Structures are given as C-alpha cells and as structure tokens.
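Could you show me some protein's one-letter sequence and the numbers that encode its backbone in two labelled lines?

___
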Amino acid sequence: MGLFNKVLASIGIGSAKVDTKLHESQLSLGERITGVVEVTGGNVDQDIDDIYLSLCATYTKEVDDRKVTKQAIIEKWKIAQSFVIRAGEKKEFPFSFSLPLDTPITVGKTRVWLHTGLDIKNAVDPTDEDYIRVQPNRMMNEVFRVMENLGFRLKEAECKEVAHYVRKNLPFVQEFEFVPTSGEFRGKLDEVEMIFFPHTPQECELLIQVDRRARGLAGLFAEALDLDETFVRVTIHEQHIQTLQTELAALIRRYA
C-alpha cells in the first residue's frame, strides 16, 4: 500500500499541497509583500527540495499582426530548501520582500500574481497562484494627477513587448496613453504616451512620446510616416513634485 501511495503521489494524487496566504493582496510599488506558505503533507512522506515564489505578470506580443498574451517572471525568490514533509503534517514558512518598483500596476487587462511552487524530485510539483492588485507609488500618482490637471485623460494602459533599446530588465514595458480632453493641448495633440522606469521610490525616469495632431497636407504625410511623434527622456525626483506640473506642461508644450 505504501508503494502504491508513493506511485500515486509521484503523479500528483495524494501528494503534498501548497497554499500561500498573503497578509495584503493590494499593495503599492515598493511596499512589502508579507505572508505565509502552508505546506500540507499528502498520503506519504515526501522530500521537498525547494519552495519558490515567482512574481508574474501578463503582457502582449505582436505575432503575425495579432496580439498574443504572454507571461513574464518579474522576480523569483527561494524561501525554503531541502526538508521532509510527513504524511498529513503541516508546515508554515513566513516570507517578506519588497514589491519591485518595475512591477506593472494592475490597470486595464494587466494581471499580476504570486506563483508558489514546491520542487519535488520525480513527482509533479504542486503549485498555487494568488493575484495581487498593484497600486502606483507616490511619484506615479503625482504624474497622473498633473496630467489630469493639464486636461489629459488616461485612455489606455497596456503592458507590451518592445525593442531591447527601449526596455530595461523585463521583456515588456507598461505604456500609459493620455488624450487631451480640455485645456491648452486639446486640438494640438493626438495623445501623450508615457513609460515609467523607476530608479528608487524618490526618483523615476520617464520616456514620453508626444504625438502631434496632423495639420494640413504636410502634416498628413508626416503622420503617415510616423514623423509626427517625438520621444523625450526626463528624470523626475521627489523634490520636483512642487514644480512638476509646470515642468511637464513646458516639456509637452515644447514638442506640441
């Protein structure tokens, strides 16, 4: 009977189970994720090599002129290694780590989750997934507030694959598309797109794309050739918050 149970456990029947319990499932960038991983033994004793947590997110990739949803690992942590879980036994492994600053916020179709896995040799590895709602940190919120004050509305936010020279550590970036609905830029711009590259909680690099509205025949030709789009990089700091609206307005105005 013991041998039969071992065979069943090797294919995942009666094997150890894993369940991750987060203390908070809604977090801002840079905040600490805390929780506990519960491992419950199955019908037989099993050797567990590792427990690992992977922070994952979805993004889109263009394949043959259509969008395909892909998954990427943002960061991975090992929280335990080499132990035995007895049949019916329960063990708990607490964890705590900072939510990486380049984690995408959960807006639009973007999904972020914590994947938990047990590494068991010669057996199906038990897993668990827990979704996280990621909120922007103070620096991002200030940029969103300024754009709203300047008359822009967030039209779309999307994580998508981009060329190597644009992205940083991940295979994708999260792009925010703002359209002018009031104020001085209405009628002058089609949209402003932004990508955030946080360096620290107090410093962030912005890649801004200003898409000018086509004016006349020359403008239409420029738009057709994508010559009406201007990219600019700017780094903002905590001390810029008081003057951020003035500085962003001047930058957008320069390329409008």
